[in-house]
Amino acid sequence: MYITKCGPDGNFSEGEMVPFGPISLSPSSGVLNYGQGLFEGLKAYRKTDGPILLFRPEENALRMRIGAERMCMPAPTVEQFVDAVKQTVLANKRWVPPTGKGSLYIRPLLMGSGAVLGLAPAPEYTFIIFVSPVGNYFKEGLAPINLIVEDKFHRATPGGTGSVKTIGNYASVLLAQKIAKEKGYSDVLYLDAVHKKYLEEVSSCNIFVVKGDVISTPAVKGTILPGITRKSIIDVALSKGFQVEERLVSVDELLEADEVFCTGTAVVVSPVGSITYQGKRVEYAGNKGVGVVSQQLYTSLTSLQMGQEEDWLGWTVQLN
């Protein structure tokens, strides 16, 4: 794993590769006491002819820098972040699965590691990158998920930290997710905290609603994470001739949609087979619950990510 630290000057040291294992932290570190931490997630894929591809790593670097500013933390430069990702993947290249068998998940982690008992930014920060091979999210290609709309708990509020990938955003969704899974649902879809009628996002995915040839997704305005897969799917959809609208999307539109899908690093594209809202269940037709649009966009994006299609958008970075 890669590790580097920085002090109050905000400049990270060159960094080094060390064996994956436990790290030492003060009990009064900023991350443990005040949640001063951010993480990222991206993947490396192996092409059929051997080389390894990264997908848009500079976007993760930029998002971490934006999140770090919100959490009052220094962050590595884009160049340092991308170089660290490359080093970590190359040091673990034997763990990158063969083409079509999965990918190498990459987890950059930035945290306030310095001791700080009073409520204040930590005096020292640690940036780590570790990896893990992962299989395909769905064993049999795409498989639809069943969501329940949550109208009591909220993931984020205006002025909060919903738009950055801070660690506390994820702990706060665990209870609603646990309750939903106990009832047989795959995950939870959150509504806005003010009007309680506009879609926000699933626990760790962005949501898209299809009606005719128009694809709508909630606009990124401070409470929704600006997903990199989300951004990529929008560009791919536009290139295929779809009209894409980023705006307020009501729960009523969701229930009347032709098709619904989620996007995220782990799932890439996840078709939604059903939505349950206030006891009413709506099912979406398609090939075993997989809509035509979901399938088309999934195939297009994964082909780009795995180097099976010419990268006309310049999104992949090849490692030799």
UniProtKB/TrEMBL annotation:
Its cofactor is pyridoxal 5'-phosphate. Keywords: Amino-acid biosynthesis, Aminotransferase, Branched-chain amino acid biosynthesis, Pyridoxal phosphate, Transferase. Its EC number is 2.6.1.42. GO terms for molecular function: branched-chain-amino-acid transaminase activity. Signal peptide: none annotated. GO terms for biological process: amino acid biosynthetic process; branched-chain amino acid biosynthetic process. The keyword Transferase applies. It is an enzyme of class 2 (transferase). It catalyses: L-isoleucine + 2-oxoglutarate = (S)-3-methyl-2-oxopentanoate + L-glutamate; L-leucine + 2-oxoglutarate = 4-methyl-2-oxopentanoate + L-glutamate; L-valine + 2-oxoglutarate = 3-methyl-2-oxobutanoate + L-glutamate. One of its GO terms (cellular component) is chloroplast. PANTHER family: AMINO ACID AMINOTRANSFERASE, BRANCHED-CHAIN-AMINO-ACID AMINOTRANSFERASE 3, CHLOROPLASTIC-RELATED. Belongs to the class-IV pyridoxal-phosphate-dependent aminotransferase family. This is Branched-chain-amino-acid aminotransferase. It comes from Zizania palustris (Northern wild rice). The lineage of its organism: Eukaryota, Viridiplantae, Streptophyta, Embryophyta, Tracheophyta.
